[in-house]
Amino acid sequence: MKPFAIDDIFEKRRPREFRRPVTGHEVARSAGVSQSAVSRVFTPGASVSVQTRAKVLAAATKLGYRPNLIASSLITGRSRIVGVVVPGLRNPFYAALVDALSEALSGRDYRVMLFTAWHGTSADPILDEILRYRLDALILVSAELSSRLAEECGEVGLPVVMVNRKTDSEAVSSVTGDNRAGAACIGSFLLAGSHRRFVFMAGLDSSSTSRDREAGFRERLLQAGAVPPLKVHGSYTVEVASRATRELLKARTRPDAIFCANDQMAMAAMDVARSEFGLDVGRELSIVGFDDTQLAASPAYRLTTFSQPVEKMVDNAVAILVDACNGRDLSTGPHIVGGRLVVRDSARLPPRGLSQVGGRTVWTQSAKQSID
Amino acid sequence: MKPFAIDDIFEKRRPREFRRPVTGHEVARSAGVSQSAVSRVFTPGASVSVQTRAKVLAAATKLGYRPNLIASSLITGRSRIVGVVVPGLRNPFYAALVDALSEALSGRDYRVMLFTAWHGTSADPILDEILRYRLDALILVSAELSSRLAEECGEVGLPVVMVNRKTDSEAVSSVTGDNRAGAACIGSFLLAGSHRRFVFMAGLDSSSTSRDREAGFRERLLQAGAVPPLKVHGSYTVEVASRATRELLKARTRPDAIFCANDQMAMAAMDVARSEFGLDVGRELSIVGFDDTQLAASPAYRLTTFSQPVEKMVDNAVAILVDACNGRDLSTGPHIVGGRLVVRDSARLPPRGLSQVGGRTVWTQSAKQSID
DNA sequence: ATGAAAGCGCTAACAG
DNA sequence: CTGTTAGCGCTTTCAT
């Protein structure tokens, strides 16, 4: 009776003429061994005689057997799936990050479950989903997480790693570029290029990244006794950034240097400055970005921007994650990976401090100019 | 004894002081009901009395219960996870596609498991993974799949939808833009703009998309009695496309029109033509792309390109997929969604045929010029 | 080295 | 409407 009952249930679910996936039990029967023998054959460190292994393997390939990972993860308690939450893939920097993450994780035999949230939105509702799927870990790319839920993750033992964002909550590791120092560096660079009227185009105030970049920039300018930057909002989108730039350039006294919290906004600003105001960006107006996305290097922009080393950030994040999944949680807290100011043509050059590194021109503050 | 044994096992796996996720059984005990009552409360269409529901919900929130979707999918046979295979996210067109797919699927209550393969590589090894996870369906974005495995998917009842690629195999649905017609349209457009020396920059010959675009372009040129296009290889990458363009423009007799199989290559070609050869693209040399990615519209490129309606493709793909997951497999085979030639400044304009649609300039072949 | 047996957390008949 | 019961396909003792 049993098989019939099962088949009936099955038929109700898959109304078509499908052979349902073959189970370990079936392989066992076909090979004349026990089901546990089959399991052992497919478990890396298990002890099976060569004969049994051969029999099982033969039967398995004959029947087209593939172990059901869902079932095994139910019992082992680990799914080897990690959730990746990202505010959309339209921003090339995020796309690059997720791409690298996906590759790194699959190299470590983890699968990626992708969640696209919205910019500035909390990851909370998504996280609820994630908790239901019993994922092994969670990576938050440029996404926020309420401390309540962060806590809950800690309680449940779900390792959380934030990438390109940080948080106050302990038990949540984070990997970011050096936003503060990078922004300060840009400040110095612009100062050295004798700019006077600065503007900072923010991303989202809810993002620690944008706040840190603003703080670093502002502080450096203040230290140098310059006029603090005017702050405008670009929302990390080209539409808003374009509008903001338009306003800026329509004003009677224009800024002579705009630092945008990311490359996308910087390129949008360049587009507006060049095509709507006919400005020669790099001579009449300096624009600097942050991230060093692929497009920043293209001849169409040649954007001066602070590089965020995607590979390094990803390696770090994955290392932390893997450690955490294995119970070693040594590395909680913030991790900062350094970057460089990559100098191209979108901002006026300072007289000194330029050097060549790996085919790129970078700027470093010379010793005597150094402030901190 | 039992709980101890379980706890021991648990401790071995999660070496830290974690409370393991609470189970439905625990909620049941705390609420003074049966475990199935708990299950019913969390099953949409089940009948539970208000009192029980209240008791269960109270206990559940108190304990922080979240149903284990892994366990439930083991028994229902559906995971509500679909695999999405894509050759990297660095190509903005793919990123946009995956982004839209992710959003559309999460709207239908499906989760996305992301696999990044490599361009031109078969999805086969990845698919093996996928089969082990018992995903509900598979979406192949611009990725190939051997017919052997496609068949195997059919046998197992795993619905497969290819997006931006097609295949000969039945039982595999595909959604593509109208590559052939689009390429033919570009041919006519270029002809009407009185170009003479054409080149087609291919993506990968293994991609049906590139082949279709080539065929459509070539045929149209031939029909018109023009010299067939010279074919060069761009591999869908900016490096190779740049090199190819360089070679092309170094030659004694330059082409006057280059049709690139995608926007990325077209923009790479523009970069080389402008910055290395000082050419005025759109006057001295015409370059046309395919996809109409976001960047194509930017003032820095203003690329003339055939639009692929991402939203429409995604809606189609998701609809097919959802149908298939529910056993209705009416829509297998190829689906083609149309596009338009979006005219901007990277190619010389023909005297007639231009019109405004939704704020964009598009080109349509006038009746008397029409050939097929 | 191998099989039997006991679950992992959940859903779905089936009685009541 | 609710509890009981029987598994989903697998891993892991525990004897043998």
UniProtKB/TrEMBL annotation, chains A, B:
InterPro entries: HTH_LacI, LacI/GalR-like_sensor, Lambda_DNA-bd_dom_sf, Peripla_BP_I. One of its GO terms (molecular function) is transcription cis-regulatory region binding. This is LacI family transcription regulator. Signal peptide: none annotated. Keywords: DNA-binding, Repressor, Transcription, Transcription regulation. SUPFAM superfamilies: lambda repressor-like DNA-binding domains, Periplasmic binding protein-like I. Coiled coil: none annotated. The keyword Repressor applies.
